[in-house]
Each structure stands twice: as structure tokens, then as C-alpha cells.
């Protein structure tokens, strides 16, 4: 009887040891605020600024690894809703319907604004007219032809730029004639650079921070100044005009964190909305949601370095 008791006790010990070991393994694989690895989905129109943020974040916190998947806005939202991924970056907040879906799953998404971006219109360098009225683009989206616009070129039918322009034009679908779509902003820029009369619709971040392979392409295009629906003046998607709220196609960028714990998503959101992250936004040509502070050293007396 004593023999069986020892065997039973040994079995219990092995079972508890295995459970503790598995728990320890799971805990070690779980990311924390500044440690571990996560995948995030990113609206392709704002990928350059996210690349910059991740490069500095990983350079600061060596135990953190963030991999990004650039996708259309619709795909980003779907991945979050279906919990295929827990952190995403978009150019819009979640709708009430989307928030209700998360609420039914007992998930409370943390939505953090971190930058003000803009949609830009671009044309071929051969086009001497660098001005465009927003009403002309809206009319074209509504199927009304404009002699100045040969065609509109978007990155993706499911992108944030298409959704934004459809909402402005109050149309459910884009016209089947005169509107072209590709997959990425880079493809739009290349197409416009090689085709006269086309107006490309891209995220301004791709123009303020072109990748090395796009530098020559950017030299072949004009960034157009835009007259808003209630304006008489034309404004460019410059940092200054965006800051002064003059450019009519500005939009906020958000990081949406659906992790149900204090993980790397929370750490990254805190980073990009904090002082260092906001300085990166400022340097990129976009507008930070809060201006980074500047520290001034005030001296009571002038020190003569020559003495």
C-alpha cells in the first residue's frame, strides 16, 4: 500500500512540475510593455511614419520586436474585428457598430491619436497647372467630367483615401470610367509620373518621406495645392498649412490597441504619443497631435569662453 502511495505522489509531482513549466513557458512568450514580439497591421497610406517610429522604438528597447503588415484600411479593420491581429494603425476611429462588436467580445479597444496626416493630389511634371479645386475632384467622383482631369488614380479600392473621397463626394461607389486603382501608393506615384493628365490620390507621408527607390519618381510629379469647398485660396499639404488647419484634406492617425493585457501594443502606443514619438512625427513633415516641449537653459550670467 505504501508503494502505491509513493507512485501516486510521484505522478502528482510530475504533473504539477509540468504545469508550472508550461505556465513559465507561456509567460516567457507573452509580450510586455517593452519586451517581446508582436505583429501589427498598418494602413498602407501611412507606412513611412510607422517605419520610422518602429526603427527608433526597437533601437531604444532592444528586447522589443514589431513586425508590420501594410494593408488597405478595410483589411486593417477586418483583421482587428476578427482578432487575427490585436494592434492596428488607421486614419479613422472605429465606428459605433465596430465598437459594439468589440463590446460583445468583452474587448475595450484603446484608441490613441498620434499624428495629423493629409491626402495629397499629385500630377505629372508636364502639367504646368499646380492648382486644383476640391469641387472639381468631387464632381469627377460624382461622374461629372472635368476638362482638367483626365483620370483619378487611387491606390486600392478598399483604401482610406478611397473611403475618404467617397464620403466627401457623398457617393456609394466610385465611377467605373476615368478612375483607376492599383495596390500601393508607390504604384500610384509611378503611374502618374509616366502618364500626363492623371491626378493621383496618395497619403502625403509618401511624398514627405519617399523611400530611396522612389526619390527619382517624386522628382517627376507635382504636389498640387488645393482650394477647399469654402475657400478662395489654395493651400498645399505642407506642415505649416496642416498646422494652421488651412489644408482641406487633413486627417488624424490613430493606433488601435485591442490587446486585453498590458503588452507591447500599449508600450508602442505610449511611445509614439509621447515626447520622442511626437518629435519623430514633427521631423517627418506631418503634424504631431501635441507639440514636443523644448527645454531652455537659463543662465544668471554670461560666461566668456575666450577667458
TrEMBL record:
InterPro entries: PBP_domain, Phosphate_ABC_transporter. Pfam families: PBP_like_2. Residues 36-272 form the PBP domain. Keywords: Signal. SUPFAM superfamilies: Periplasmic binding protein-like II. This is Phosphate ABC transporter substrate-binding protein.
Amino acid at each position: 500500500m505504501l508503494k502505491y502511495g509513493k507512485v501516486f505522489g510521484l505522478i502528482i509531482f510530475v504533473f504539477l512540475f509540468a504545469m508550472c513549466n508550461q505556465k513559465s513557458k507561456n509567460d516567457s512568450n507573452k509580450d510586455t510593455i517593452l519586451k517581446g514580439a508582436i505583429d501589427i497591421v498598418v494602413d498602407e497610406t501611412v507606412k513611412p511614419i510607422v517605419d520610422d517610429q518602429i526603427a527608433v522604438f526597437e533601437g531604444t528597447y532592444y528586447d522589443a520586436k514589431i513586425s508590420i503588415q501594410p494593408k488597405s484600411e478595410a483589411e486593417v479593420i477586418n483583421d482587428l474585428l476578427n482578432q487575427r491581429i490585436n494592434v492596428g494603425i488607421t486614419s479613422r476611429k472605429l465606428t459605433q457598430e465596430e465598437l459594439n462588436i468589440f463590446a460583445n467580445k468583452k474587448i475595450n479597444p484603446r484608441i490613441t491619436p498620434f499624428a495629423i496626416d493629409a491626402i495629397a493630389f499629385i500630377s505629372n511634371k508636364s502639367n504646368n497647372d499646380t492648382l486644383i479645386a476640391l469641387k472639381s475632384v468631387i464632381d469627377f467622383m460624382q461622374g461629372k467630367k472635368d476638362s482638367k482631369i483626365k483620370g483619378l488614380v487611387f491606390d486600392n479600392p478598399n483604401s482610406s483615401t478611397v473611403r475618404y473621397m467617397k464620403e466627401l463626394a457623398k457617393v456609394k461607389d466610385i465611377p467605373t470610367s476615368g478612375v483607376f486603382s492599383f495596390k500601393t501608393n508607390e504604384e500610384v506615384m509611378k503611374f502618374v509620373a509616366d502618364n500626363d493628365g492623371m491626378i493621383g490620390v496618395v497619403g502625403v507621408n509618401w511624398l514627405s518621406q519617399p523611400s530611396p527607390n522612389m526619390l527619382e519618381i517624386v522628382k517627376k510629379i507635382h504636389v498640387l495645392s488645393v482650394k477647399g469647398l469654402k475657400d478662395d485660396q489654395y493651400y498645399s499639404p505642407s506642415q505649416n498649412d496642416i498646422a494652421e488647419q488651412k489644408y482641406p484634406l487633413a486627417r488624424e492617425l490613430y493606433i488601435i490597441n485591442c490587446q486585453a493585457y498590458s503588452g507591447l501594443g500599449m508600450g508602442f502606443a505610449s511611445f509614439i504619443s509621447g515626447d520622442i514619438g511626437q518629435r519623430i512625427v514633427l521631423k517627418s513633415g506631418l503634424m504631431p497631435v501635441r507639440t514636443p516641449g523644448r527645454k531652455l537653459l537659463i543662465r544668471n550670467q554670461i560666461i566668456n569662453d575666450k577667458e
